[in-house]
Amino acid sequence: MKVPKVIKTYCPKCKTHTEHSVSLYKGGKRRSLAEGQRRYERKNVGYGSKRKPEQKRFAKTTKKQTLVLKCQKCSYTIVKEGMRLKKLELVEVVK
């Protein structure tokens, strides 16, 4: 699916329709000192590899792509809920 790099949509901070720059959401770096990670490592101690079996095949063939819209006037960021797509392409719209 081709998505334009700039979309005109509603900004709740400006309370009007403004141009938003579109980008793909990218997850942050995992923290090794986070509580969940420490718990996971503590439970894994004593096992040769992982304590739960690894999944052999996946049920889903696509990943959910999440769009991040940033208002060009006030820099307010909106995160659009993910949609299942095999391929997402950001394209420049020629006027």
UniProtKB/TrEMBL annotation:
InterPro entries membership: Ribosomal_eL44, Ribosomal_LSU_eL42, Ribosomal_zn-bd
Cofactor(s) the protein needs: Zn(2+)
ZnF C4-type: positions: 11-74
Entry annotated with the keyword rRNA-binding: yes
Gene Ontology terms, MF aspect: large ribosomal subunit rRNA binding; structural constituent of ribosome; zinc ion binding
Cystines in this chain: C11-C71
Cofactor note: Binds 1 zinc ion per subunit.
GO terms classed as biological process: translation
Pfam families in the cross-refs: Ribosomal_L44
Family matches, as SUPFAM superfamilies: Zn-binding ribosomal proteins
Positions bound to Zn(2+): C11, C14, C71, C74
GO cellular component: ribonucleoprotein complex; ribosome
Keywords: Metal-binding, Ribonucleoprotein, Ribosomal protein, RNA-binding, rRNA-binding, Zinc, Zinc-finger
Family statement drawn from the similarity comment of this UniProt entry: Belongs to the eukaryotic ribosomal protein eL42 family.
Function, in words: Binds to the 23S rRNA.
Subunit (UniProt): Part of the 50S ribosomal subunit.
UniProt protein name: Large ribosomal subunit protein eL42
Upper lineage: Archaea, Thermoproteota, Thermoprotei, Sulfolobales, Sulfolobaceae
The gene coding this protein: rpl44e
